[in-house]
Amino acid sequence: MEDTHHTCQWGTGERWGDAPTETGMKRLALSDTDKQARDWFVEATQALGCHTTVDAMGNIFAVRPGLKNDKAPTFVGSHLDTQPTGGRYDGILGVTAGVEMLKVLADNWVETEYPVGVVNWTNEEGARFPMSMVSSGVWAGSIPLETAHSLQEVGSGKATMAEELKRIGYLGETPASYEAMPMAAHFELHIEQGPLLEMSNKKVGVVKGVQAYKWLTVKVKGRDTHTGTTDLKSRADALLTASKMILHSHRVATASSALASTGILNLKPGSTNTVPGEVTFSLDIRAPQNETVVRVTNQIKDDFAKIAAGEDVLHSNQDCTLGLPCSVSITEDFDSPATTFHSSCIDAVRQSAHSVLGSNSKNLVMDMVSGAGHDSVYASKRCPTSMIFVPCREGVSHNPREFCSPEDCAIGAQVLLQSVIRFDRM
Amino acid sequence: MEDTHHTCQWGTGERWGDAPTETGMKRLALSDTDKQARDWFVEATQALGCHTTVDAMGNIFAVRPGLKNDKAPTFVGSHLDTQPTGGRYDGILGVTAGVEMLKVLADNWVETEYPVGVVNWTNEEGARFPMSMVSSGVWAGSIPLETAHSLQEVGSGKATMAEELKRIGYLGETPASYEAMPMAAHFELHIEQGPLLEMSNKKVGVVKGVQAYKWLTVKVKGRDTHTGTTDLKSRADALLTASKMILHSHRVATASSALASTGILNLKPGSTNTVPGEVTFSLDIRAPQNETVVRVTNQIKDDFAKIAAGEDVLHSNQDCTLGLPCSVSITEDFDSPATTFHSSCIDAVRQSAHSVLGSNSKNLVMDMVSGAGHDSVYASKRCPTSMIFVPCREGVSHNPREFCSPEDCAIGAQVLLQSVIRFDRM
Ligand SMILES: NC(=O)NCCC(=O)O
Ligand SMILES: NC(=O)NCCC(=O)O
To answer: Could you say which residues form the signal peptide (chains A, B) (predicted)?
Structure first.
């Protein structure tokens, strides 16, 4: 907990309570504060006897030698970047628990069979550079380095990942690749970010996999015109059209028990008395099954084209003057199919959870599937992987009030340590 | 036309055709390019024998002496600021036609009975500082100087009108007031900005008044949460709620033959995988009658509160999972009641139009009411006022493609000149 809150001095966000630690976090990937947190990570792990390597995506691998060093290390990994209005636990807990593992091993003179490591992955959130888990994705060979390097930040800035990696001094020389930096396994401790553990009074979630998701960018083009002189039927109002699309995306998702969300929306030109001629918005579509995500995405694409053309998909046209058609173009920016973790790692986590929680553990541990993506998704493509979830208050995450009690953080860290030791022995 | 296109070198906008003048304009009020256009206006009018005065709102009054100078000048006025994606005619034509009037008077050695003047009003558009016609409003005593000076620019900047007036050197010492700068009358030539003249093959609109409008700011608050782990019913999605409101505002407007428009929308935090916790958007409501604007505004306020609370105002909840309630707060930022111009000025314009257009004029002139606000709205509170409209292509304005043919501009300028001369004689 000390390390967690200590590192939250870099990128402190919105205050929500009076206690010193009752603030959120705003530590966007490759910002100045992310650099400070990275510098801490390098120093802390080196001081604990690790050798650190930075790769071409700024991923930082800290490795502690084992008795034998002819096999790949068993890694613990997560991320130090946060959402613009994020909390103190999402990602951060997984890294500080990894450092805690190194401390416990050092304090107790434990030598593992093979090396163990802790990795801080770059831009897991996809909040600044709009592709989540992008750097573990490059490591896994799933995302081309060039694509990742040329990703541009969201909002009004224009910086690319490559520029920002260079600027903060974390553009490493080691190739970002599972071949240059192989792993025996990857374990990740994370807050659940949803309400299921808390609602069912459980302490540990054994994560068997991750649901599927896609990120789309939708661009609607209409025509800039005067709000006072252009009657409703002579308008091609890109924002009215986008509003219908956003509402409709929730209907389509509802019908398939999927999720559809818009987190970014920008319009042009942005003047009170000009009808917006262009609106661009993000769409995040998720469901446990790949087929559901594909079906919802296809239906949304079809229906958005109809809405833009003026078809009455929402049954709203009779009450609301229909304007001129807009055009719509949709790009698929990111695709993360459903992931199933490795049974050996899942077993290691489950056994560790029961061991840590003791006699009543049957009532305190449950298997689950993650609603959020994590670097473990890409790690799992190249090595046995699993995750450990701990409860977070009211299931709230990506919010300054995100909270996990010190007791629950400690349980998670103990399960993480035991999982690594079990795997190392295995 | 030479002056019009010459001054459009300052703030040239998006290109839409190959010819040198086929670009739009982006000359936001009190920007560096606005300063350049202002400097031109001061030089041009002084060279034509005018005395220029700048007031505390940066309004520039150029006055040409008459035979007698014991009465207030008859003014021609409009504005040199534009929309972010505006054209070369909105406002600009009214000012350059005023300068043209001064040239014609000088070239022909005409001495008017009383002085005549040309005024360039500041920030008529309300595009940069979100209150349209604000500086004629201060001049008329309708808007407090303090309110205007402290208006903050839209978007991410933080500059106020007072700061920007000072920065570009146009914070004058003369009080911004009809008492310090009285007018005998105010005539304004403007493109129609709507399709009515073109559709009915008319050349001149005699403007009898201006419709009513209000500008509101709507702020919706929900809760930032994770898009992947928060089910639809556990969300307080400020953007989904705002989308419903925007759609609904068009329904309410449709039912009353009014207009409702949203030109600005900003959300927080702006990340693909965070449900927006806060959305702020503008609402521009217009109708010919004050009562209609008031009724529509009140209904929108009531219904927005219901939509935020989760009531099924749009009949959309059954198909679209209902989330948690959001809160909504609405401020009324600007109110421009319906305006009726002065019969003497209307007559002067009508007679001049018939005189300029000759034998077939009966088929070429029509009375009309303006859909857009103009500085003439506030001028009319303190002196006899009317306006002259000329057609613009397809009725398009607040768009780079805004266009008025040189022939139509010339007709408008001639009607303007004659209207001033008629009023001066009267
Ligand atoms: N854990 C987390 O918030 N990851 C971001 C990727 C996602 O959007 O699920
Ligand atoms: N003429 C013009 O575009 N004025 C801006 C004020 C308004 O929004 O009507």
So the answer is: none
